[in-house]
Amino acid sequence: MAKFVLFSPVTGKIVIAGKPVAGASVTRWYKGGFSDKQATDKATTDAGGNFSFPEVTFSSIMASIIPHEAVVTQDIKVTVNGVETLIYATVKRNYDHNGEYGGKPLDFVFDPTAQPTFIGPDPGIRVTLSAK
User: Fold this and answer.
1) Which CATH superfamily is domain 2-129 in?
2) Which of 12, 70, 85, 119 has the fewest CB atoms within 10 Å, i.e. the most exposed one?
3) What is the pLDDT of residues 83-105, one digit of tens each?
4) CA distances (Å), 122 to each of 2, 41, 75, in order?
């Protein structure tokens, strides 16, 4: 049975003015794939501002033999001091591990006070994709 990746593993750090934010709520949501699975999970930043989410996969014999287009809508939001901000949103069009950004790991640094290195189609999506 083939394994398909709906959302690659995510690591990140939430900071304000370069200082780690402990206790921030980070929410990951996704919908799509062969069975149109939808789910939400949450993480809380540690003392260093770090958070992580595991890889989300599914296995299916039918998905490996029936032609279909991979379409998985993904987003990540962070809530700091009661303010929720969308920091990541994309539509993944493959089932590859780290297929969201051409094989690069999803490793984010979000600082609402800093100039982002990535601004999404919605200007509210502002994050630094850090290199590993």
Assistant:
1) Immunoglobulins (2.60.40.10)
2) 119
3) 888 888 888 889 899 998 888 88
4) 34, 23, 12
Angle at 19 between CA 54 and CA 119, to 5 degrees: 65
The structural domains of the chain, with segments of one domain joined by +, span: 2-129
Query: What is the four-CA torsion angle of 90, 59, 108, 86, rounded to 10 degrees?
Result: 40
Give tens-digit pLDDT for 48-94: 999 999 999 876 666 566 676 788 999 999 999 898 888 888 888 89
Q: Is 64 strand, coil or helix?
A: helix
Q: Are 93 and 70 in contact (CB under 8 A)?
A: yes
Q: What is the pTM of this model?
A: 0.82
Token pair in block for residue 26: 């980070």
Q: What is the pLDDT of residue 113?
A: 74
Nearest to 6 by CA among 82, 80, 94: 94
